[in-house]
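Morning run. Coffee first, then this:
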Amino acid sequence: MTPLLYASSGVAVFAIALYRIFTAGDVLRKIIAANLLGGGVFLILVAIARRPAAGIDPVPHALVLTGIVVSVSATACALALARRLEGTTLDDGDDGDDGSDDTEVAGRGP
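And here it is:
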């Protein structure tokens, strides 16, 4: 594949994800859109890494690998935060699975 195809695909994914971040109402959809935004940036960096005259530059590839690790950990933190925020919107804090209050089970108390 040519670098131009990688770059144009990255720009398209970036633009679609940016649109979804601003238009999505659900937090989970915004987190997924943020992941796609990062994927678009990764595609653009891979396209930049290949230069016809100089060959392949390893630095953008290293940045992409580091970005993937950061993206996975940021997604995990965002999902945990979204889950906790969703739990605080419940009226009584009980999801009805075992008859106990989840806040007391977690050790935080009422």
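Strands lie at 50-51, 55-56. Good start to the day.
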